[in-house]
Amino acid sequence: MLFWIFAAFLTLVAACAVLRPFTVRQDAAEDARAHDIEVYRDQLGEVERDAKRGLIGQQEAEQARAEISRRILQVSYTAGDRVENTANRRVTRLTAAAAVLAIPLVSWGLYVLTGSPGMPAQPLHTRAPAGPADAPIGDLVARAETHLAANPDDARGWQVLAPVYMRLGRFADAQTALKNIMRLSSETADLKATLGEAMVGAARGMVTAEAEGIFKQALALDPKEPKARFFLGLARAQEGATEDAQTIWRGMLDNLPEASPWREAAQQALAQSGGGAASARGPTEGEVAAASDLSETDRQAMIEGMVTGLDEKLRENPSDLEGWRRLIRSYIVLQRPEAAKKALERAVAAFGDKAPESAELKGFAANLGVTIE
């Protein structure tokens, strides 16, 4: 209610300001005309006195009387026009006043009829998400970036943002975040390997010379760092040194625990290079050994069968995030990038384009060189 009282007051003040020029009387002009007539009458009196004294001749006196009379008539005529136009000015004032007052009355009436004056106020804090967990990922990232722009030495902030950048496929930003973490804390093997992974992602799956140097730095800090070992094997494979790559990946399988996510990556890479079999669910050591004894045709058929089985299970249970990862990676192993792209599209459709799972899968697939619009 207080708002409407304040709004009505402001409207009244504005209307009065607009109407003021129409209500001011022209008293100054009237006073000027009266003064002029009085002066001319005094001049006539002086002419008469000068003529009686003989200071001016009769002809000159007549000419002076005529000129002064003409000026008096001119002033009187102007005043008469003003009297005649008073009615017109009054109509103009009334019209202006009606127009100025009609604007707020009409606008308020239309709002009452078509608006929602009874709707309660909705301040920003009541419309904002209840908590960070309810906000979109883009808003959270933007908040974090704003905070870090003002506090670039907040190591914890960079630590939170770096993996998000990786999942979103923003590899250049991930590199910046990882370098800031190492600048503010310490250079660990895991951080170095993740930095190299971001470089590979930015290069669309190619292990560049710079990334290879970073992976070697990671192994210097920890010779068993699995991520660095895997990508160094990938670098050898991309250079055509397939046997060297297979040696690195087999060494990983000998040392990695069964629960390590890098076991499956090494197995897939071995299968792609012809050094072992891939399995949609992660083959056992016996399966790998059996597949290595098969012919190339039989081995390919075995892999295709496993991938087909995983594809069918995902059609029945499309909420299996890890299953979608395995399927996409399997198609890359089989050198079927279009099938991997279609699998990614199906997964995003299943989870929803804005879902965190979809963002994570897009970042994962981008590391393998698979992207969608």
UniProtKB/TrEMBL annotation:
Cell compartments where the protein resides: Cell envelope
rRNA processing found in the keyword field: no
Pfam families found in the cross-reference section: TPR_CcmH_CycH
Location of region: Disordered: 264-293
InterPro entries: C-type_cytochrome_biogenesis (IPR051263), Cyt_c_biogenesis_CcmI (IPR017560), TPR-like_helical_dom_sf (IPR011990), TPR_CcmH_CycH (IPR056413)
Keyword terms, alphabetized: Cytochrome c-type biogenesis, Repeat, TPR repeat
Major location category of this protein: other
Domain of life of the source: Bacteria
Residues annotated as domain Cytochrome c-type biogenesis protein H TPR: 146-261
Listed name of the protein: C-type cytochrome biogenesis protein CcmI
Organism of provenance: Nitratireductor kimnyeongensis
